[in-house]
Every structure is written in C-alpha cells, then in structure tokens.
## 1
Amino acid sequence: MTSTFGGLNTARTALWAAQRGLDLTGQNVANVNTEGYSRQRVDLQAVGGTAVPALHSVSSPVGGGVDAGRVTRIRDVFLEQRAHTEISRTAELTVAAEALGGVEAALREPGDTGLQSMLADVWTGFSEVANNPTEPAARGLVLERLDILAGGLHTARATLDQQWTQTRDDLQALVADVNATATSIGELNTAIGAASRAGLPVNELADRRDLLVVSLAERVGATVRPAADGMVDVLVGGSTLVSGGATLGLQLAGADTPDGVGTGDDPRVRTDPGGTTIAIGGTAGGQLAALTDTIPGYRGRLDQMARDLVGRLNAVQAAGYDATGASGADQPLLDDGSGTVPVDPATVHAGNITVRVSDPALLAVAASSPAAVGGQPSADGDNADAFFRLSLAPDGVDAGYRQLVVALGVESAVASRDLEVQTVISTQVDAARESVSGVNLDEEMTTMLSFQHAYGAAARMVTAIDEAIDTLITRTGLVGR
C-alpha cells in the first residue's frame, strides 16, 4: 500500500514540474519583446530515495519524483562582459565620428560656401586689381570679398564654439543621468539582496538591473563584478560607482568655455565626493575627447589661419602705396577689431578678424609711391600682384588651409571606418548574447510541447494508479465468498 500511494506522490511531483515548465514557457513567450528580459528555465532535479532506511524497513524505494522549485535566468557572464566593452567602444566611436562631422559642417568643405572658395575669390579679386589698378570697382570688389571671407571665418568659429558648448551641455546632462541610474542600480541591489536572503525570486529585478548596467556601459564604459547575495558592483575607470546599495556620484568639472581648454583646467569627470578624476569611456569618453582635443584642435588651427591671413596681408599692404600716395603701413588692411596700430597678430582669431579698410582708394596696390596725374592714381599695380602671389606660396594661407581640410577629411574617414568595423563587432556580440539569453519562439514552442506531453503522461500515471488502488480496495477479500 505504501508503495502504491508513494507512486501517487511521484505522479504529483511530475504534474507540478510540468505545470511549472508550462508557466515559465508562457512567461518567456509573453516577454519575447520586453527589452532586457532574459529567458528563464526551470531546473528539474530527481528526488532520490531514502539514503538511510527507517527502522525495520526492508523496502527498496526508487525515488520521490522530481523537484521543480528552482528557476534560472539564462545568461552568459562572459558574453555580458564582452557586450559591455563593445557597447562602450561603439558609443565612444559614434561620438567621435559625430564630432568630426560637426567640424566638417562648420568649415563647409568642399563647397561654394566654404572658406576655400572665399579665399579663391579674394585672390582673384587682387589679380583683377593688378590688371586694372585704377579701377575703383575692382578695388571695392576686393574689399567686399575680404569682408565675406572675414564673415565666413566668424561663422565657422561661432559654429565650432556652439558645437563645443552643446557638447559640454550634453555631457553635463549625461553625468546627471548616470548618477540617477547608479542610484537605481543601488536600490535594485538592495532589493535583490534582501529577496535572495529570504529565498524569494529575483529574476525580474535582476533583468531590470542588468538593463541599467548596459545603459551605464554605453554612457560611461561601466563594468560589473559579482558580489554577495546576487548583488553586483559597478566600476567606472577603476572607481567603484555602485557597491551593494551604496553609490558614488560623478561630477563634470573644468572649463565651461572653449577658451579655457589648454589652460590646465580642461573639462573632466570626477567623483563626487572625493574629486578624483576618472578615465571614462562610452559616450562620455567621446564627448570629453571632443571637448579637450577634437574641437579645440581644429578651432586653434582655424584661428592660426586667421592670424596668418592678417599678418601676410598686412605685410603686403605695408609694402605698398594707396591711391593717394600714402604708405599702406599707416592703414593696416585687417585687424582684430580693436583699431590699434600696429596690429598684434597674437590678439587676432577667426572670431574677431575684421576688414579695417573701408575706402577702396586706401588699398595699397602700388609698389612705389605714385605721382597723381590730373587727380588720377598711378597705374602701378605691382603690389596688387604681390597680394595675389600670396595664394601661390607653398607655406601660405591657402596651403595651410588645404592641409587642415585634408587632415580633417582623413581623420573623419578613419573615424567612420573604425565605427563601421566596431558596429559589426558589436552586432555580432549582441547576436551571440541574444542567442543565449533572448527568447526564441520556436524553441519555446518545442519546450511547451515537451511539458505538455509530460503533463499528459503524468496525468495518465495518476489514472493508472487510481485504477490499481480501486481494484485493490473494491476487489480484495471477495474471492472465496
């Protein structure tokens, strides 16, 4: 009798295990489109027989059925760590490519609205003045084109400054968001730890936490390491951002204008409290690189171009004579907008370069002091030709600007190619991770059918045992009556 009723218990555990499997399969299917959800699996373990028989027991039990009390999240810790690394790298390269694209947009090269086209118009204007030095319209056209060039430099400089400011504002917002995310991870850690100690399920809580960790990996290059009671520690740049339920904040410090870069107070991310500067990756790492290197670098080269332009044009202007016979040294062609004489090239940059000469007659296009004949200027235009020859100098403004544009194009192309390669790598890692932890409907369908058949078989087993017991109870003792 004991063995027969023991079979009912075995069948009961089989029914429970099959029902548990079906429930989990339904949970997986229901969350097939839930971001961050990891598929779950019931761990089935056979319940063995009594290892030490009871007193006077001579039976040989075959086991107690199946235990289906444990549910496991399907995760590959190595793929998760690899995914964090690749996500961080992809985000950093994305920002780098976007920053270079912003610089290209500021310079507008190649194109009719770029600085190269404006420079070419200026040199063409000087060439026309050299051919017609007494023509006021030609002189006026040169000054107009110089003013357009100065305006183009102003626009490019202002665009770069705006890009820098916007990038810093974005980084400031990102840091605040990272702090909020870290706090949420700490709260989930606390909940997971308490639930784990109480023996309660934590799979869904862990999914939410891991999704936040991926977000931190993308934004600041965070990595994780396991801790006690199902909790994790989150590290950024070697500093522990989250430890259990405790969190460490981040703070953006340093210059808040592009002019402050290079003065020893570059933008940086540091711990709060503590004030320790940390090396970060991800989106924040790319933004910091743009703030401290990419944008200031090209901004500085643009300023140097403006200084070279002022210095070279003013030098040629000073070597010639205007239509009144006065030396061009008394009237610089370009300055920094301050109106001082002599012009200090060190104070000039692309944002303040100004055409100082407004009267076409003051353009020093003559190589020697002309003698006014009948009130008309001399036909000497040799100095105008000297202006034009500035465009041909191998180390001139044009050559320097072309080198800047070429360097920008190469750097941008390399960044784009690196991003393409990294995107492929990241996609492959994500696919491998998804193949392990993601929900596959075909696989779940197979699992559902397997548990469905197991449930039916267990139910049939109960029916068979019920029939056996019925026979034993209703027919025992009837023979011989």
## 2
Amino acid sequence: MKGTIERNANAPLPTVEGHEPETLSLAARASRPAQVVLGVLRIALGFYFLWAFLDKTFGLGFSTPSERAWINGGSPTTGYLSGVEGPFAGFFNGMAGAAWADVLFMLGLLGIGLALILGIGMRVAAVSGTALLLFMYLASLPMTTNPILDDHLTMALTIIALALIGAGDVLGLGRTWKKLPLVQRLPWLV
C-alpha cells in the first residue's frame, strides 16, 4: 500500500528521549494519542481528590458550605460518615468527626490528588487511593442503583491500572521522580 510504513514485528521499539525501550513504562511506549489520554485521565482523577480536599478545607460552597469548612472548625468526615446506614454503620458512625479520622482523610485526599496530578509516587497513590475508595464504597452500602459496582470501585481499579502501566511517566514527572536517590533506595515510592 502506498504511503504505509512497514515495521518488522521483531524489531526493537524506537527509543524515546534516549531511553532503551525495555526501560520505558508501558504508558511511555504507547502511541502519542494514547499517552495523552492516559496522562489526562491520571490528572483528572488527581483533580477529583484535590478538589475534594480544597472544597472540604475552605468550604468553597460545592459540597461543603463555608461554615462547615475544615478551617472554620468543621469536620470533613462528619457529614459523610454520620449518615451511614448500611451493614458497616456502627464502624463508620463511630469514626465520624474524630480528629484522627479528619486528619487522615484530608491528608489522603491531598496526597493522592497531588501524586496523581504530578505523576509521582504512583504505587503509594494506588494503594492509598484504593484503600480510601474502598472505605467510601463500604460506607455507601447498600447501593440503590447497582448492587455490586459503583464509581468508587471503578476509580480504584483505574488508579491501579494507571500505576501498573506507569502513567506517571507521560504528562507527568514520573521518570524524573524515579531517578531521585531516595526513590532509587526505596522503590515502593515509585
């Protein structure tokens, strides 16, 4: 066919930015449109967490009115956890409004959001993000629209997939992060 470029299936992939193909993440070896989609998806999920942190901290009036903002003495966990009625109601109602729960929840939102947006610490973001989302899933049981799945589970799976394919390497600081001496010594920080 005229104008097509044929490629030997056994030939090595071309290098990107001087890296050998084997050292590049799956996301970095994807086509440029796929890289953009993966990077934008990662950033969008990060913004989901960062926005929740900002709204709950400053009471921007979307989910949290200013009088219930964390900086105004409000509790970020009270509204959500005190209304739990499902099989784990006792567990979650007992956590509602506890200072330790508020701090852990807010640090989780901020850390997960920044890690995903920047493309750094993707393994930590995947583990902590999945844990937070699973707790939110359990707190929302029983569900009324689908007895098994909801957006918490699909977001958790998406974050895990993004971490596994190295999506922090595209439109993010993942490659630079991985070269830091601390991250080299502690690879779980990747």
## 3
Amino acid sequence: MGIRIEKKASTEVDYDVIVVGAGISGINCAYRLQTETPDAKIAIFEARGDVGGTWDLFKYPGVRSDSDLFTYGFAWEPWPYSTPIAEGDLIVSYMKDCIKKYDLGKYLNFHHRVRSCDWSSAGQRWTVEMESEGRIKTLTSRFVVMGSGYYNYESPLESDVPGLENFRGRVIHPQFWPADYDHAGQNMVVIGSGATAMTLIPNLAKTARHVTMLQRSPSYVVSIPNVGRPKTWAETLLPRRAALAWQRWFLMTFQWCVVLMCRHFPNFARAEFMKLVVASLPDGFAHDPHFTPRYTPWQQRVCVTPDGDLQKALGGPKPRAEVVTAHIRTVTEHGIELEGSRGGKGGDSTATTTLDDVDVIVTATGLRMDFIGGIPVTVDGGGRIDWSTRRCWHSAMLSDVPNLFFMIGYVDASWTAGADATAWILTRVYRHMRKQGVTSATPRVGARDAARLRDRRFWNLASNYREAADKGLPRYGDVAPWKPRDAPPRDLIYAKWGNVTRGLHFGVA
C-alpha cells in the first residue's frame, strides 16, 4: 500500500509545543507544560502504540531500571512502591497511573513516527513531517521538544564478535528479545558486562540449563537492598508524600556526593567500591579477575544488583551461572574459543579455553546511540544538521537551532532529573518569550565565549557504545551556559530560578 500525502492549507500554527516521544521524558515535559504554561497548546507524538519508551520496547527477561525509582520517578508523583529497583512492566504501569491522575492522555497521539523537522525563519515555526498509518502528515509548531531518547530503536550496535556468523545456534540481541522464546533447558552465553547482562544472568539462570556471562573486562557491581528494604526515619515519622519527597532529595544529593568523591579521590573511591563488591560475592568466590575493573568508579556506569541476585546465581554448591573473563578468539558452530580466559570462581581456578555445546548467544554489547532518535533536522530547507558542529546550551538546546529543546539525563544519576531540568528551562523560556512578544529563541556562542571555549565531550563515559557514537554527538564547552550538567540538585535549582536567557538571541515573526 502506497503512502498518501496530506497537505495542510492553513497558515496557522497547529501547536505551540510538539513533544516527540511518550517515554518518561515526554510525559514529564507534558506535565510541566500543563502546569507552568496552561495557555500552551501541546501534543505528544509517539511512534509506538503505547507509552513507556524504553520500558515499552525492551522485553528481555527481568528488564529493569538500573537507577533507583525514588529519583528516576516523577518529582510531581513520587514512586509509590517500596522497592527502589523495579522491572519495566511496573514502571510502565506507574507511568500510566500518573497520566490518568493528571489527565495527560489528552495530549497523546500514538503510531506517529516523526520523519523530519524543518525550521522556517520567515514563518518563525517548525514544520514537522510524520508518518501515521501509511500517510504523511505535516504539522506546524512554535517549539519542538525531542524526548525521543538517545539510541536507535530499530537497529542495535553491531557486535564486534569474531566468527559470530559461524554459529549454528540462536543469536539474540536483548533489544529485540523474541516474545515467544522459551530459554528453559538451554546452555546460554551472554556476552557483555553492563547493566543488561547483570539483569539477564540471574533471570535466565532460573530455568536455563546453564548461563555464562562472558566479559572482556569487568564492571563495578554493587548490591543494594530491594525487597523487604528497611524503612528510613522519614518513612517512619513523616507523612507519606513528605517522606517520599525528602527521600528523593536525599538520594539525589547523596549520589552526587558519591560521584564527586569518585572524581576527586578516585583511588579512595576505588578502594571503597571494591569493599562493597567483595562483601556481596558468594563465599569462596575470588573477586579477581571477574569483579576487579581496570578503571575507577564512574568512568563507566556502576551496575546495581537488587538484593545481590546476580551474586546469588553465582554461588551455592551447584551454581546456576558463571563468569568468564576473556577475549574471544572466534565463535565456532557450537561454541566459543577464548584467549587469556579465567573461568569458574576466579582466583586459582582452572582456565577455560573453550565454551562448548552452546545453544544460545546473547549479545548484550550495548546500544547504537542516535542523538534525538536520529530524526533529520534542518533550518530553512538547508542540509541536515551535523550535530557534531553544534554546542549544547544548558544541556537543553543547541547552538544556532531556534526553538528546539532536547531531553537528556545524567550518566551518573537518574535520567529523569536531567529531563526535568530541561522541562523547567523550557517553560521559563516559553513564558519569557510570551511576555516579551518574541517568537524565537536561538542559542548562539558569542565572540567572548568562543575565544575561551574548550571542547568537552557530550557524554563523559568510556563505554564502547559511547565511543562508537562520539563523532555524531554535539559538544559542550567549559564556560556557562555551554557547560554540561554535572550536579543534579544544583542543576535543578538553577533550572527553576537561574538565568535562562544568557546566550539566547530572540526573534520576532
């Protein structure tokens, strides 16, 4: 069936704000707009058929947040459950409850995939082209907010696994886990050592014949109490909503202090993290080499295991899972040949050179990063913007691109805290523009800032997927307002009360 083109005859702007994506960033943004700018006409367009974003897409066994939900949840409707780590289905259910409670569903438009956005300087508006049910629609808006995430929903990061094409068994990427797949009784190898692998191993081990986590290098893995977590003093003494609000701010501040410690006292931080790692491992399980990273904490993300479920799967007289630290020489028809491997419980155990009789290989090797979901953006019909040539303004807008906001979270704190800071800045800029009677706001690097700006990377992690995407990502500077966010409590205070007009140039239709 061909695609039909619908052309709009009206010259009026359809919306004041179009939000792309109905994940946690888009829903949070809609709430802030509804509350802070009630006169704005807004709409959310979502390519999929439901809310949730990441949590609606990922369906692999046990998929869960690797951030605590007390800070990952919405500030305006605190996470209502006692478990700080929760699986994807419960997160989606929580989001739907929030949407219903605050009547945000009226903004939602599903099965609308944004194909391009073009800014018109003459019309002072965005033209957004999207596909829905085989038709191409064009809508106009004063502002566009990209809550579409940071990775490619359609294509994963290609796995750099030599000889993978030789394998006769099944190869699965967690991003596209088959809905009808039963892994019971299978001998499985999960390649990777990040949050996805940490989630998969204990969940697969419940019914699989055996599961091996095959890693090239280890990550920091910290166990936290989840089910049956003891109540804090605030939960005991304060009204429930006040206790949850206090808990959110305490955790946000505490996590920030931990990150500061890791930045300024890396050796001390490494020693303290290793104490936690060693304490969480089963008796007799040597932490070296499988749980001794070569880097200091927060050069890559720290992995969290609720109630030590990964560590428990590795322990006992008959462990359901094991860790092998090695480089892959090649994948064969029914196994994996390794170089420099250490298996079993680590330490003095016998080295493993081959993983035999493998039924399934799971490539948990990362996501393909795609800034603002890979949506082509142009200005006045020009060429597609190369984001690597742009600088980030307050982690919310991009140099020389008018009225475009993007949602990005933290790498060392909860995503939602960063997205909420952007939402606050958006509402304040919107109100300022309405008050001043202007129609566009464009971040521009002035001559004074340009002379002293030095590049800072978009995402300060050493992860493989971040390195692979580096050339296509925008840059930060080291001078405000071009510096990255790096302190959630302070950033949120600034977003609500700080100067959000510096570096902006305003225009009129």
## 4
Amino acid sequence: MFSLDQRLREDCYVVGRFSLSLLLLSRDANYPWCILVPERENTYELYHLSEEDQQQLIHESSRLAEVMDSVFDADKMNIATLGNVVPQLHLHHIARFKDDPAWPGPVWGKVPSKAYQPDVLESRIEKLANALAGSGFTALTEGADISSVTAPAPRIDC
C-alpha cells in the first residue's frame, strides 16, 4: 500500500492527483514549488517504475511544468529528482525567476523557508488546480494538510 513519506507530509500541501501521481505544493512560499509523487509502493528511482508508469510520469511532469511556466510566467523551470533526504521517488518542479532569492543557484538552503499567507496559498493552489483541470487531473481539498495521506482516494478530508 502506498504511503507518503513523513517529510513530504510535513513540508507540503496537497493540490490534487494525476492518474499516477499525487501533486503537492511546497510550504516554502519563496518560490512556486510543486512536487509530483508517483503513488507506487517502494519506489525510490525512476527505473523502479514500470515502463508504462515511467511514460505517464514524464507526461504528468511535462504537463505540470508547462502549466507552471504559463501560470507563473517563469524565467526558467527547474525539474529535479534528488532523493538524498527523502528517498521516496518525487520530482520537484520549481518556477524560477531572475529576481528570486536564490537565482541563479539552487534553491536548497539559500534562504530560510517562508510561510504562505493564507490568501496567497489559496490563490496559488486555485490557479494551479484550475489550469490543470481535466486531462487526468483531479483537484483535492485546497490547502489540505496531507498528514493522513496513505493511499489513493477520491478526496482527502483533513
């Protein structure tokens, strides 16, 4: 049974689900920062996914990056899978701007994490969910705490 890594549960808000992946929003408001997590048990690397799931993840990642680039008018989209701290397979999608606090370097550890103001959080999640609507994406409870996410479900009530 799929279970979301504790660190991801603590560090993110849920936005919705694609057919393969859970879509999360990082709690760090310094950047528009989304994370895709394939809902597959014991998956730590891309090659742990079936060939079909690999293709689906690439499709979901490309769709998310395209939407984030459009919605946030990014100068550059950074997409990365590291797994050094959180071993569960997850793909970071970060909209970068030439005037962001870490540009042009990586975002990790550059500046302290910044909490979202409630209205900014709601707006960011709404923009993403609306732009991704349809084509295999389902929005979940806006801004929901994902501490209880353990398995795919139609809705998350937290």
